[in-house]
Amino acid sequence: MPITRRRLLTTTLSAAAVSTGAAGPALAAPPRLTLPEPTGPYPIGTVPLHLVDRSRPDPFTGEPGHRELMAAAWYPARDTGSHRRASWMDPAVLRRYLADAGYDPDVVRAPLTAGRLGAPVRRAAHRLPLIVFSHGAGDHRGSNTIMVQELASHGYAVVAIDHLGDAYSRLPDGRVVVPTEESLYPEDFALDVRFVLDRLGDLPAGLAGAVDPHRVGMAGWSKGATATARVMLADRRVRAGLAIDGPMLPLMEGRIDRPFMMMTAEFTKATEPAVARFWSSQLTGWRLDVRADGAVHSSYNDLQVLMPQLARVAGMTDEELHGWIGTLAPARAVRIDRAYPLAFFDEHLRGRPQRLLDGPSRKFPEVRYLR
């Protein structure tokens, strides 16, 4: 079962709710979680996107012509000083998120990202390669912000999607939307992504003319990883795919002859028949599977950094914390989350060969290369 943020809150914040005590004296502002800064040479801009697919019905209400999505575009920017930093999650969404789990909605504040809201895009001689990101079940588009803003700081445009119905998000009219009891299928995620690709010409903030539609990649975590495979099976516009610990279920048909990389933790070829089948019979092009020793399902996303901070608030034991982040040190996980996706897309979208992808690296002794 993929780890969701609802499970995260249910297991970790209960201790925080008990320790702070609703009946106690008024407390200072709750602590703000933090994310590491990206390492690339460019400052980052970001802008929210509201999209409506008129060709599809809403998957839950059946309302025709009204599949609604929220997303965010991230990109290398210029003149960012006057633009405020974007939050990892909208405060109203975070409060609902916490309240839905039955806990104090003010126990923590969301981290601020490196993205500057509405900053103008940095123009360059060549258009920007594009990555589309798809989150996991019951999650949100900011779940892999460490990876997303790292790519943007190195000259990529990234569009991260909230798959409404299976995501926490906020619509432009102020409505906070949450996951429904009946979650979406990976194919629904894949259709969302293909619709976003159809709308690249409508990107705001000068991005439409800055993005290269012929250099498109996709990355996804958990259910979004399975959706990445499904998109590549159906849509040749996506030239390279990165699946981050995806279960690859339901089973798929067809073959992928373009570069495909897996970063596995719990959904491995050795333990999951669907993953083994996908690897052995459906990947016919360049392929690589890497796995970090001590990694668990959430180790390749922002939870690896945020969980230890929540643990300090919640008073978790080391054993409880390791149940969520494994034994892979958060600082090492951050380096992996930055280095491997960037190397993969640099090689396969920019044509820059990367030694990191050739085999075991002294810089990452904990990473296994599984061919």
UniProtKB/TrEMBL annotation:
<dbReference type="InterPro" id="IPR006311">
    <property type="entry name" value="TAT_signal"/>
</dbReference>
<keyword id="KW-0442">Lipid degradation</keyword>
<dbReference type="InterPro" id="IPR022742">
    <property type="entry name" value="Hydrolase_4"/>
</dbReference>
<feature type="domain" description="Serine aminopeptidase S33">
    <location>
        <begin position="130"/>
        <end position="268"/>
    </location>
</feature>
<dbReference type="InterPro" id="IPR029058">
    <property type="entry name" value="AB_hydrolase_fold"/>
</dbReference>
<keyword id="KW-0732">Signal</keyword>
<feature type="signal peptide">
    <location>
        <begin position="1"/>
        <end position="28"/>
    </location>
</feature>
<keyword id="KW-0443">Lipid metabolism</keyword>
<keyword id="KW-0378">Hydrolase</keyword>
<dbReference type="Pfam" id="PF12146">
    <property type="entry name" value="Hydrolase_4"/>
</dbReference>
<protein>
    <recommendedName>
        <fullName>Serine aminopeptidase S33 domain-containing protein</fullName>
    </recommendedName>
</protein>
